Amino acid sequence: MQLPLDLGGAVTDGPADASEGHALFRPIHYLGSKLRLAPTIADALDSADAGRGTVLDLFAGSGTTALALAAHRTVIASDIQEYSRVLCSALLTKPAFTADLVAAFEEKVKVSGHLWEKFQDIAEPLLSYERFALQEASRGIGEPICQVIESGSVLAAERAASPTEADELDAALREVQRRMARAQIAGSSSLTAFRYFGGIYFSYEQALELDYLSAVASTFPSEFSDVLTAALLSTASDVVNTVGKQFAQPIRPRNKQGVIKRHLLAKIERDRRQDSRSIFLQWLERYVQGTVSERPHLAVREDYRDALKKLSGRYSVVYADPPYTRDHYSRFYHVLETIARRDNPAIARSPGAGVDDLSRGLYRDDRHQSPFCIKSQCDAAFGDMFQLASQSGANIILSYSPFDETAEAHPRLMRIDALVAMAEQFYKSVELESVTGVAHSKLNHTSLNFGKPDEAEVLLICRLKR
């Protein structure tokens, strides 16, 4: 089916209340989402920029805050990660289309069945083995599926210095490699999800479906690329077989003594039987039906410094939600980054591992390391942010979470009072508001470092003029 470039149906203004309608759209399972705080953030932006000019959302993440703010003002969503740019673009800057896109995609899937058959034929030895492993898991026998999760990486098998076929899984891995070579796609990015993450984060069939759906999406006009890829990322986030639906590390099916965690077998089986294709179509329908305002929103992939400099003059206020702790967000979303980029990346090795040993989490070797998460770099990172925002003539709203030293929480790399002192070097007025999600109040910043629950949020409202 030929998809018309103009599908008709203009997007309309979304609801003004950030607690309604499209503001509840959560494209992926995301840590630290500020969606529940969106009304308070919008109020703070209004207090710093009453004219409701363009806001630069500097660490846009999953795009939920940007989408909520888009009902009030024009948004430029920026993030260093490609998966974030894709999600924000799909949420904010969709081309004018209707549900015809979903029908067109379903039609294209029907006429591309030969490609799916080709993919299935290549992967059949592993698909067959995992079907057997899941059947065994349903009977309470966990060893086969544990082997898949722990030793079933196609990528690791490709890079093994001494190939073996010691057991049935090894033999299946080797046969799949031979079939990929015959099909002339060995090492190809056309099977990125299957080669990198099949068996480990997804079932082999789920990963293969993600690759197939991506291949079908690539046949559509480029203007639809982001919304189709966003639906793919949302699907991956839903079907991933991990605790908490994150990508920090694969599920651990055994305890430290090597005993299988039998209580996890039902979850493993349930997650790995989810149908990627039907879930993708449901997500695509949601993206198509989502509403955004008609303002000229923009999504970009930029380092925060580059965004502040390159876009200077195009925004009047900045919203910044940088990382708080030593935990790099890229560790939790590296799989989505690779699926979004399909760039066949090198994989990092664990410290002390052999040259052919891959990190257990299969992390990208170029995984982004945020200076806000590095103790020796975070002071300079915050300083650069305040300086560049002030030089552009923009007020800035900074989200930050204080640290209760008595609680079991990851310590923050900057204290609130230190952040206030730094902001005051560049802004004449720095106010603090404590936010609980449903209420907020102005507080003296020295009180915010003690006795505050870990989930509390603080907004620094920085103005160039008093």
UniProtKB/TrEMBL annotation:
Reactions catalysed: a 2'-deoxyadenosine in DNA + S-adenosyl-L-methionine = an N(6)-methyl-2'-deoxyadenosine in DNA + S-adenosyl-L-homocysteine + H(+)
Record-linked Pfam families: MethyltransfD12
Enzyme Commission code: 2.1.1.72
Organism domain of life: Bacteria
UniProt GO MF annotations: methyltransferase activity
Entry-linked PROSITE patterns: N6_MTASE
Keywords, sorted A to Z: Methyltransferase, S-adenosyl-L-methionine, Transferase
Gene Ontology biological process terms in this record: methylation
Name this protein carries in UniProt: site-specific DNA-methyltransferase (adenine-specific)
